[in-house]
Design brief:
- By secondary structure, the chain is mainly beta.
- It has a single domain (15-121), classed as 2,3-Dihydroxybiphenyl 1,2-Dioxygenase, domain 1 (Roll).
- Helices cover 9% and strands 38% of the residues.
- The protein is built from three helices and eight strands; from the N terminus they run H-E-E-E-E-H-E-H-E-E-E.
- It has helices at residues 13-16, 67-70, 81-84, and strands at 18-25, 34-36, 41-43, 53-58, 73-77, 89-95, 103-111, 114-121.
- Strands 2-3-4-1-5-8-7-6 form an eight-stranded mixed beta sheet.
- Strand 6 (89-95) and strand 7 (103-111) form a beta hairpin.
- The longest helix has 4 residues, at 13-16.
- It starts with 12 loop residues before the first helix and ends in a 9-residue tail after the last strand.
Length: 130
């Protein structure tokens, strides 16, 4: 079967990236939701789910638009968010989602049509969440 995707060299940052969670958009309230004012979204901790699923329920007036609001995402821990986003279509520039979260900075990019979140933790071994 022929593929429309172009062959490319492996991207180095993925050699150090570590799976963190999968984010799923929902319209239903979920147990253990936390409110994130900056993005006006209710989120659950993937640490509380057996398969590291994070549920996101956006408020009607959320500033989040496009595929970030409608599509699932896969999240990876990286050493440096700024370096990780280079060469990708950036959907959300690096930002700090919550001051008390265990991570310092996150950013969202599109890779082959999929939404990917890069997360830079203060401490790479930290469990971290809201």
């Amino acid at each position: 079967m022929a593929s429309d995707r172009q062959e490319r060299e492996p991207v180095n940052q993925f050699q150090r990236a570590r799976f963190d969670h999968i984010g799923v958009v929902t319209a239903e309230r979920q147990p253990g939701e936390s409110w994130v004012e900056a993005t006006r979204v209710w989120v659950t901790s993937p640490r509380a789910h057996p398969f590291n699923v994070e549920f996101l329920r956006f408020a009607d007036d959320t500033p989040v638009t496009g595929s970030l609001r409608t599509e699932p995402h896969v999240a990876y821990r990286v050493d440096d968010v700024e370096s990780a986003i280079v060469g990708h279509a950036v959907l959300a520039e690096p930002f700090q989602p919550a001051p008390d979260a265990g991570f310092l900075t996150v950013a969202f990019v599109e890779v082959d049509g999929a939404v990917v979140e890069f997360m830079q933790y203060r401490d790479p071994d930290e469990e971290g969440w809201f």
